[in-house]
Amino acid sequence: MFQVTKHGLHSEMTRGANIAGVKRIRIHDLRHSAISLLIDRGFSALAIAERVGHESIDITYKYAHLFPSKQAEMAQTLELERMEEERGVMAL
Predict the structure, then answer these.
(1) Which of 32, 33, 36, 59 lies closest to 46, judged by CA?
(2) In angstroms, rounded to a whole number, what is the distance separating the alpha carbons of residues 49 and 63?
(3) 9 near 27, Cβ under 8 Å?
(4) What pLDDT, in 10s, does the model give residues 61-92?
(5) Is 14 helix (H, G, I), strand (E, B) or coil?
(6) Is the pTM of this model over 0.70?
(7) Dihedral, CA of residue 47, residue 50, residue 55 and residue 61, to nearest 10
(8) Which DSSP string do the residues of 34-79 spell out, in sequence order?
């Protein structure tokens, strides 16, 4: 997909970290960051597993500690919808 060598990518990551004044992370850590971002954006575990090529959704669930905040958000959304429906019924 990319026309870059492992050494070239490593060098660019080091250069970028130095310019930004941050600690250099491993290349594999970018994968974790991407998965965390996808979870935060609300994508399902199944969609993420397919995107990153996990052989099993169980691998994606290793990031389960990031999903609970989405559970609370979903519960809040459902509660708001229920309240709106109740108001609609009362208005009739």
Answers:
(1) 59
(2) 11
(3) yes
(4) 787 777 766 677 778 888 899 888 888 766 65
(5) helix
(6) no
(7) -20
(8) HHHHHHHTT--HHHHHHHHT-SSHHHHGGGGGGSHHHHHHHHHHHH
